[in-house]
Write a structure and sequence with these properties.
The structure is a homodimer of 215-residue chains. With 215 residues, chain A is α/β, with parallel strands linked by helices. In chain A, 40% of the residues lie in helices and 17% in strands.
Chain lengths: 215, 215
């Protein structure tokens, strides 16, 4: 119900790879490369050429047989698919180290993401500048968002505070949440949440430490 | 070749969910819950009960029909599967906002992860304390790791520096890398890399912003 009715249900890994292709295409365009083949994509990104073609096939016809893909055109189309062809305001809640890292994250603007507001509940942080952004009071999320209209929230508060700020963000009009707090958020069905868990990432890596490589 | 020969190839999403179950079980144990059912898991984590049973099935028999799963036992077995049943030293390279957030990340110790050393190349940071940890010179990665024996490296340096520090970390004995830099690292086949890309996460979320919810 949240996806556009014209395209079939697209698997999340495909969307993740589209973002990788986009990142890669932006770099290529900056280097004035005009055309690429799916084999080039495989060499540069490590993603199989057949996988690349399959990922694109969800969204219609791309590229010309024997010629390849026009870099600029492909980039524009993927950006449109991912709905990042126009500036997307984002709110960050929690301006600790992680929130600060996100506010200053390079490449956001290139991808048309704009951190429009950052909030914290710590009086020592409220009113301080983080880059060009003044940290605002968490209590003002709703009133501020009536102006900026962010539909994406990034939550970087401690686990104990995360559900509360998520509820507030949704009340303020947020539709999708990137959650860094190590808890499972309870949200209405229409809201999309992605969780980034450092512990999960480390645990998956740890699994790959085979016992034979143990010191 | 890097996975243990006794178990079949386990899909990455299964490993990711195992880490979620583990997190959940640790919380349950802290609340003195002794037994759970797969339905409880579904209710609490949002992961389908059948999926939970299927994930565990890769690793043998778990739980008792009609009784459920012993929380403590299940937790210990998942920790063993993920090889986080003993303290795992980790090195962090790059002590900016993101590196600092990771060094202070709550729950690491609970999962037997131990940030044993953090490095930076900025003379202004080297020698400074971050929590209890003194930031060390990036030039000393190899000599320091001869002592601490970290096989996991977390890379939080800018994209332009990431390949260089990855090469050094591998030279120093690192087997798996959690990479936060927005580039694709080139590593020998035996090395496992997981990339965390904030841009990718945002792009996937952005896709889910259906046009009808647009202001």
């Amino acid at each position: 119900m949240n996806s556009s009715s014209s395209s079939p249900k697209v698997p999340i890994p495909t969307l993740e790879r589209l973002a990788t292709y986009l990142r890669f295409l932006i770099d290529l365009e900056a280097s004035h490369v005009e055309t690429i083949s799916s084999t080039d994509v495989e060499k540069q990104t490590g993603i199989n050429a057949a996988q690349f073609r399959k990922d694109l096939s969800y969204f219609g016809e791309f590229g010309k047989p024997g010629v390849g893909y026009n870099v600029q055109e492909l980039q524009a189309r993927i950006a449109r698919i991912l709905k990042i062809d126009q500036l997307q305001p984002i709110m960050v809640i929690g301006a600790g180290n992680l929130g600060s890292a996100l506010i200053g994250y390079p490449g956001l603007t290139e991808h048309k993401f704009h951190i429009a507001a950052a909030f914290d509940r710590d009086p020592a942080k409220i009113g301080c500048l983080q880059g060009n952004l003044m940290i605002l009071d968490e209590a003002d999320v709703c009133t501020v968002n009536a102006d900026i209209g962010a539909r994406i929230a990034i939550i970087c508060v401690p686990a104990s505070a995360a559900q509360g700020v998520a509820d507030t963000a949704i009340l303020a009009g947020v539709k999708v949440i990137l959650n860094f707090a190590p808890i499972i958020l309870r949200v209405p069905e229409r809201i999309v949440v992605r969780n980034v868990s450092f512990l999960q990432e480390l645990a998956v890596l740890s699994y790959h430490l085979s016992s034979d490589t143990k010191k």
